[in-house]
Amino acid sequence: MILDVLVAILAAVAGFLAAIWLLVLWAGERTGAAFDRSPEPLDPIIGPRDRIVICDGGEPFIPMPEHLRTQDEMIAWMTKELPKLTARETP
């Protein structure tokens, strides 16, 4: 008799805690999405090549070479090679 009451109380407490846990998970997922700071959901640009097409303002565009991987290589290219290329583009 006492064991049956104890099992019933433990089952009720377990069900209550499970319901609270599901509520916390559901509410946490919804509020966490509001604070997401990643630009992917709002960014209409799909790929890196699309940015060139969308942002093209009719001005000459000089793409960065694909073989540059590190920041130092990119900075060296921007300071040495890019001025030479822009000097050729301007009339």
Short description:
The protein has 91 residues and is mainly alpha-helical. The chain is 65% helix and 0% strand. The protein is built from three helices and no strands.
Describe this structure in words.
It contains three helices and no strands. 0% of the residues are buried. It is rod-shaped and about 95 Å long. The chain has 91 residues and is an all-alpha fold. The model has no long low-confidence stretch (mean pLDDT 77). It has helices at 2-34, 48-54, 71-89.
List keywords for this structure.
mainly alpha, 3 helices, 0% strand, 91 residues
Proportion of beta-strand residues: under 5%
The tally of helices reads: 3
Which runs of at least 5 residues are low in confidence (pLDDT < 50)?
Answer: none
Radius of gyration: 29 Å
Average pLDDT figure: 77
Percent helix, as a range, is 55-70%
Structural class by secondary-structure content: mainly alpha
**What is the succession of H and E elements?**
HHH
For the record, give the distance between the C-alpha atoms at the N and C termini, rounded to a whole number.
Answer: 98 Å
> How does the overall form come out from the CA principal axes?
rod-shaped
Number of strands: 0
Instruction: Characterize the biggest β-sheet.
Output: none
Compile the SSE list and pairings.
Elements lengths: L1 H33 L13 H7 L16 H19 L2
